[in-house]
Amino acid sequence: MAGAMRAARRKGLSADERSWLLFLLLPVLFVLVFSYGGMYGVVIAFQRFIPAKGLFGNQNWVGLENFQYVFSLKNVWRAIWNTLSISVWKLVLGIVVPVCVALLLNEVRRSGFKRTVQTIVYLPHFISWVILSGIFLDLLSTDGLVNQFLGLFGLEPIFFLGSNRYFQATLIVTDVWKGFGYSSIIYLSAIAGIDQEQYESARIDGAGRFRCMRYITLPGLAGTIALMGVLSIGNLLNAGFDQVLNMYSPQVYETGDIIDTFVYRFGLLEAKYGPSQAVGLMKSVISATLTVVAYVLAYKYADYSLF
Fold first, then answer.
1. Residues 136-147: tens digit of each pLDDT
2. How does strand 47-48 pair with strand 60-61?
3. SS3 60
4. From CA 277, how far away is CA 284, in angstroms rounded?
5. What's the confidence (pLDDT) of residue 5?
6. If you count Cβ atoms within 10 Å of the first and of the last residue's Cβ in the chain, which end, N or C, has fewer?
7. In the chain, what are the helix, strand and coil shares in percent, each to the nearest 5?
8. How far is CA 125 from CA 70, 121, 175, 199, in A?
9. How many CB atoms lie within 10 A of CB 303?
10. Degrees, nearest 5: CA angle 213-214-217
11. pLDDT bucket at 8, cuts 50 / 70 / 90
């Protein structure tokens, strides 16, 4: 942080601009403590870890034995496949739905109605999955409101959260519903930055709203869409631990168990610390690699860089 301040002074930043850099202090400390401070625990992946001996005790080093054991299990490959399946759908729909919502909201001319809709669709983002999972458990149960509605059309009740046939789709739809309103802010901001003279010229030539959306708004959003898609690649192995943990059950492990929940059960509930840490380390290495690749692609194709 001190180095950043010295660099700021050398570049001739004002006192106000330098003071803003101080706001980085807490986030940097947070990352150092919670993201890097616990990294010494990765050694457990190469040990037959016994908690009674302590993290720095005389543990038995086993090399890659934990990795070999974990990848010999059928359940870990199932968890990897479920993670990729859920993450890819969340990534795709997490871009498509907010873009569509932003396009539709941009066409609303009544500002009061537009602000009301924006507020309503933003709110779910700020509700934790602990609360939402309880709501969905009631709504999606066999005697819940959704099945009561389906019963009006003579359809049989569907156990959305207890059937392997429907569980993944339920996770994906509820996650997209929770986040699409907040994500649409990015695309609405990008739309606001499009040169309005293009719309005026198009209207003079006789273009309607649909043609303006197709030939001006969507091309104007192309860079932002590409950027968000590329940056999402780094989270490909994060399928939403808090959501899945609060909504799944042993009945749906076949389609709902992901890497994070597998590590949670394997490490904390079954006390297999070494093998669970091996899975976590593998996930972290792959995610870090994907993040680097994502930023390289973002810099190359979307002209995006952090520095």
1. 989 998 888 899
2. antiparallel
3. strand
4. 10
5. 47
6. C
7. 75, 0, 25
8. 35, 8, 9, 32
9. 10
10. 50
11. very low
